[in-house]
Each structure stands twice: as structure tokens, then as C-alpha cells.
């Protein structure tokens, strides 16, 4: 996700609609991303989550409760998509941003470049604010990948394999087809001008790995 050039306050306002960290979205995109009353409900205090992960290989690194909406998926909303992101930040800085209540965004998982280590920041039953589109947020799991869209060296073998194993497990759990119609890039979400994961992301390789090929 590209970093915006706008002021931090405008960025936080925009991200509250669910945009992940770093993209240059315009303020006009914020309108209509939330259903009536959802923004107020999303910022209401919620009970702390149990320090347990949904994916056994992940470490628990909880995002601030101000950066996602508590829910009860898949009872409240079906989980039908996996959205692939690139952080435009280091792994450590991404976790710090998600833990900052002023950031107003978080994904469910973050994958580290060097070794494929995975942190879970939001429980899968909750709605992470990562896609910039409320409908897509409610129906998806968001996975951030450490790196920059114009620096393919960050897309290591360790990152691809760890992320693909995570996505495969999510797809198996929720009955999501393991194809490009259901495993999408942030750039494919309606209403966003994000370009991640960008042209250097190897989709053919990734989908093959998700399918165990």
C-alpha cells in the first residue's frame, strides 16, 4: 500500500472506513464505506480478546480495539474472501501502527519478509479495517505482507510459503475457493486506489502454493 501525501488527520479519518495502512486514498472515498451507525459502533469499547490465535503458527500481537469492529463471524457475516496487502512499512512498525488507537486500521495477520513469521492482530471472527470498503471488510480476512510494492526482494520464498499456508488454512476453514476470484489483492477492492500487492507480487506462484502445487 502506498503512503499517502495528505495530512495525518485526513488519513486517520479515511482509514476509519477500513482502508489498510499506507495507501493514497482521497477523502471522497470515505463516503459510503460505513453503513448508518457503523462508525459509531466500531469505536465503542469492547471487551479485551483472549490471547489465543486462530492459526497455530501465528503469534498473538493484538491490535487496538479502536482499529477493528468486534463481531461474531461467520454467524454475523460469511467469510468469503482473502485480501492480500503489502505494508509499505517494516514488520515491527506495522504491528506498532495497528496497536496505536489513532491509526484506525488493522489487518488480521501480518507476515514477516525475512523468515515468514506471522503475527495475528485481529481475531478472524472480528472485522478488521483493512480493505477500504465496509462490505469487503465484513466478508474477508486481511493479510499484510512486510515490504514495499516496488521492492520485490521483500517477497521472499519464506514469505510466500508462510502466507500461502495461512491462506490455504483460511480457505479450508471457511470453504473459500482457492482461486483469484476469492483470493484478491487490495487493488481489486471497489472504491480504493491502492495498488498493492503490485506488479511484483507473483500471483501464479502464490495461487499454486495455496493449492499445494
TrEMBL record:
Its EC number is 3.5.1.28. GO terms for biological process: cell wall organization; peptidoglycan catabolic process; peptidoglycan turnover. Pfam families: Amidase_2 (PF01510). InterPro entries: Amidase/PGRP_sf, Amidase_domain, NAMLAA_amidase_2, TAT_signal. One of its GO terms (molecular function) is N-acetylmuramoyl-L-alanine amidase activity. It catalyses: Hydrolyzes the link between N-acetylmuramoyl residues and L-amino acid residues in certain cell-wall glycopeptides. Residues 1-41 form the signal peptide. PROSITE patterns: TAT. Keywords: Cell wall biogenesis/degradation, Hydrolase, Signal. Residues 68-198 form the N-acetylmuramoyl-L-alanine amidase domain. This is N-acetylmuramoyl-L-alanine amidase. It comes from Actinacidiphila cocklensis.
Amino acid at each position: 500500500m502506498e503512503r499517502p501525501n495528505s495530512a495525518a488527520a485526513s488519513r486517520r479519518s479515511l482509514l476509519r472506513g477500513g482502508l489498510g495502512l499506507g495507501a493514497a486514498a482521497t477523502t471522497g472515498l470515505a463516503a459510503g464505506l460505513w453503513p448508518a451507525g457503523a462508525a459509531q459502533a466500531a469505536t465503542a469499547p469492547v471487551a479485551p480478546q483472549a490471547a489465543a490465535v486462530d492459526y497455530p503458527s501465528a503469534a498473538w500481537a493484538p491490535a487496538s480495539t479502536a482499529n477493528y469492529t468486534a463481531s461474531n463471524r461467520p454467524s454475523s457475516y460469511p467469510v468469503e474472501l482473502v485480501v492480500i496487502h503489502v505494508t509499505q512499512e517494516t514488520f515491527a512498525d506495522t504491528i506498532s501502527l495497528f496497536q496505536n488507537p489513532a491509526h484506525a486500521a488493522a489487518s488480521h495477520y501480518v507476515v514477516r519478509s525475512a523468515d515468514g513469521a506471522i503475527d495475528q492482530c485481529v481475531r478472524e471472527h472480528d472485522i478488521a479495517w483493512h480493505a477500504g470498503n465496509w462490505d469487503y471488510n465484513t466478508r474477508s480476512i486481511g493479510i499484510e505482507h512486510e515490504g514495499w510494492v516496488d521492492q520485490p526482494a521483500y517477497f521472499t520464498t519464506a514469505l510466500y510459503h508462510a502466507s500461502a499456508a495461512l491462506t490455504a488454512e483460511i480457505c479450508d476453514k471457511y470453504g473459500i475457493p482457492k482461486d483469484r476470484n476469492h483470493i484478491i489483492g487490495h487493488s481489486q477492492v471497489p472504491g480504493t486506489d491502492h495498488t498493492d500487492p503490485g506488479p511484483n507480487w507473483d500471483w501464479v506462484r502464490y495461487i499454486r502454493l495455496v493449492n499445494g502445487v
